[in-house]
Amino acid sequence: MPRSLVLGNGSMLATFDDFLQLRDFYYPYVGEEDHTTYGKFHRVGFLVEGKGFSWINDGSWTVKAGYSQDSLVSTSILASEKLGLKILSEDFVDPTKDILVRSFKLQTTDGKERKVQCFFHHDFYIYGDKQKDTAFYEPHTKSVIHYRQRRYFLVGGTTSDPVNCQTSEVPDDFHPLSRDEKHIDHCGITSFSIGKANYRGLEGTWRDAEDGILSRYPIEQGSVDSTVEIDCLASGRGSWVYLWICAGQNISAVHDLQHFLLEETPDQVKQSARNYWRGWVAAHADPGEAVPASVHDLFVRSLLTIRTQADNHGGILAANDSDIMQFNRDTYTYVWPRDGAFVSMALTRAGQTEVVRRFLSFCEKAQTKEGYLLHKYNPDGSAGSSWHPWYRARQSVLPVQGDETALPLLALWKHFEKTQDFEFLHSLYQSFVKRAADFLTRFTEPDTGLPLPSYDPWEEHRGIFTYTTAATCAGLRAAASISEALGHFRHAARYGEAADRMTDSLLIHLFDGQTKCFLKKIKRDHGVTVERDTTPDASISLIWDFGVLPPDDPRVISTIERLERALTVHTPIGGIARYTNDYYQSVVQPSTDVPGNPWIITTLWFTQWRIAMAKTLADLDKPLQDLLWVVNRGSASGMLPEQMNPLTGAPLSVAPLTWSHAVFVDTVLRYVERKNVLEKAKSGS
Fold first, then answer.
1. Residue 280 near residue 307 (C-beta atoms within 8 A)
2. Domains in the chain, please, with CATH?
3. pLDDT per residue over 233-274, tens digit each?
4. Cis peptide leading into 623, omega within 30 of 0?
5. Helix residue ranges, H only, 283-352
6. Would you say residue 197 has pLDDT above 80?
7. Going along 143-263, which residue ranges are E strands?
8. What is the rounded end-to-end Cα distance, in angstroms, of the chain?
9. For residues 444-466, average pLDDT
10. What share of the chain is helix, strand, coil (3-state, %, to 5)?
11. Backbone torsions φ then ψ of 517, nearest 5 degrees
């Protein structure tokens, strides 16, 4: 199920489904240690006096997920005709403290005052599994605490209109909350149930809520879950119910976080979070009125979504939608250097250079001593899972994708062009830039200077690719520019010469004279080309963007025209597929009309070329339609998927995909830049 909301601060990330149920909960790294795990979720239910009980996913609710303007505070509407209840939900993760706050404004539709019992179920999988956990009720903070080893999660709450409020107790001398700590009285949770879940047929404590009476069992260990209750008096004027999860590495840390929240008040912390994110957005490039409001709104939402996927330790995660586990028991919760580089270049164009700086430092730490970057990494910098073998066809092979070492160099150069941060550039030169560039110059055929075989950007085939070769040329030219900027002229000349030689060989060996187009890949054996793959592949279209040729070169034009003819999805959904006969996540047999599923990324690569080729304002009409097409492919809350069903437009694979949002941001800014140039030219200024 695609995620309707993502909320985070770089160390805590919470994702929610269409029913606003918590689906993924990451801490202390974004994308690592999902404390909910695949297929599980945290339930929310209500029992209204005189009306009955209902979980919000039981089919009786209408739910509209959304965000408040320009922020990572949600604004969602839930309504139940059965319960006579309408709810405004405003959820957020504090920007600087690891607290998830869920706030619900409850209104009875008939205006009458009624008691409402609100139930919040928590099914934690601490460290990603369910064993050796403990959950207990802590009376002095009126909360339930789940913990294991160095992970503590305090579940607390309060309401503006309590029923029989019982304030929390002042701790005594023999309690982990010491007497000298400040104590704030609050109503806290009304009741609780702690028990076994997913063990010997036990479903969990959420079943206790359905009769409105929780067991109040105070502690359990092993495979545990909990349900807490907060009672309020709701009427037509609206009553607020707050539920929070404080995350820390010991009990004192989560106590301190709840104390902060109570002292500041949840409502004030929520407003501060809104202001924080609006200020963050305001510091970025703004397309303004150069694009329609819907494009502008998705541009801002994309920037904020990207930020939720960026870990504060530097990793930029591909996606954090764990439902992809159903396909191969693995996820997208990894740092791909290629994805991160593309995202970084989009963020640099938008003016968000601090996230980029952290990502480049992450790459420096992850880089091998030989200078290359591996397939993908975990958010803590350790090597991620991989399907690239070290042994193939009875010989040793290096399991790398050449672009993943080259593109971070390009991202670093663009970051420097934007910031002119010589000190940061210098700090990475010997430890990262030179190692990577030296590897790229060594990892080549002696006779041609072409890169040695590696894996394509789709990570499916091995060979010498037009895309990878062009990306490597761009990386080497970036290394040459960096070397020259820092006064390392001998290295600059060496990297520049390697890029020139590689470019010449690309034009000789990877351009097909018969089709007048660039090949997807070639395979060579002892200096001889033994295979020429003419498969139309969207990644070939980037040859101009990597600076190998200008966008109006006849070879680029003929290549892109051929690719567009072959890869356009001829259904009402439209868009561009990755390559012909693409079976990944396919819902229909690939054909001439549907060569594969349409992707956001590939579609906008062609849009970017049309923007670069635009000579008049009228030439920007089609790019603008492409941007509006992307807007229509997003969810109501602005989440962009990796790819879509070519028949229905429904999202496929993960959503949101960080790269999809990044390429949208990048394309919008390119469109605005080109439009400004053409408008100035038209006015003669």
1. yes
2. 1-10+291-333+568-685 (no CATH), 42-280 (2.70.98.10), 340-548 (1.50.10.10)
3. 999 999 999 999 999 999 999 999 999 999 999 999 999 999
4. no
5. 293-308, 325-328, 337-350
6. yes
7. 143-148, 151-159, 191-196, 219-222, 224-234, 239-248
8. 51
9. 96
10. 35, 25, 40
11. -140, 160
DSSP secondary structure string for all residues of 532-580: EE---BGGGGGGTTTTSS-TT-HHHHHHHHHHHHHHB--SSS--B-SBT
SS3 category, 632: helix
CB 550 within 8 A of CB 508: no
The partner residues of 92 in beta bridges, in order of sequence, read 101
- The lowest-confidence range among 63-67, 368-372, 523-527 is 523-527
Query: In the structure encoding, which two tokens stand for residue 673, read together?
Result: 């830049």
The packing angle between helices 402-419 and 337-350, to 10°, is 20
Give the residue from 53, 21, 216, 47 showing the smallest Cα distance to 122: 21
pTM greater than 0.90 (yes/no):
yes
What type of residue is 650?
A
Which residues have C-beta within 8 Å of that of residue 540, sequence separation ≥ 6?
A: 466, 467, 517, 518, 519, 520, 559, 563
List CB contacts of 511: < 8 A, sequence separation 6 or more: 517, 518, 519, 555
* Residue in 123, 124, 157, 153 with CA at minimum distance from that of residue 142: 157
Q: Report whether 135 contacts 146 (CB < 8 A).
A: yes
3-state secondary structure 581-616: CCCCCCCCCCCCCCCCCCEHHHHHHHHHHHHHHCCC
